[in-house]
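Translate sequence into structure tokens.
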Amino acid sequence: MTNTKEPQNNPFSNEQILTNFDYEIDMRSFPDEYRRVQFNIGWQDAIPREKAYVDSTLRKLTWRNLGYRLGLQFGQRTSAEIYEIYEHFARHFESYPSITLAEEIAPDEVLYEGGKQQITVNAYERNPKARQACIEHYGAFCQICGVNFERKYGAIGRNFIHVHHLVPLANIQETYQVNPEKDLLPVCPNCHAMLHKRNPPYGPDDIKNFLRLANKNGD
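Result follows.
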């Protein structure tokens, strides 16, 4: 029987370690062998203290710059130790969102989304606290087609969902006060892509109507 307990002397067993890092969006994909290699590369980049990662890179949490951050913090380690540390983070990957983003929002608390920052095509800076509040309000399932990834795929799909900004950030020139219940909506990747099939984006009701029409024509 495999012992899944963390070693008592493991300095990385505290999941709160991620809260010590200043980042704006967690872009880590599901852990696999490729991500393990990237984690190790990032760690090795930190050792000579010569390949400094710029702030704009560190704003996006990836497996590579997570390795880099830990390498800066803990220094030279053996390959086996770095692999063990990666495995710790990989095992707890699904639980991190509820740990790092679980702060409850007080009724009078104001949240802001910053000026637009392009992460990937059609993706901009996101306020993770507002995202979590939106998911806590609606639930982690698509508000357009109803798909729930945990029900569909099991544990691997737990808490997986996109969050759509009903007011496109591309149209906002300054920071604005965001209401997680009115300005944001949990949607699946497919519906999210369909929302952005035009500019300005379709509304959620538009996509619901397209789905109804497609289902009707398919009968």
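Note: The chain has two domains: 15-100, 112-218.
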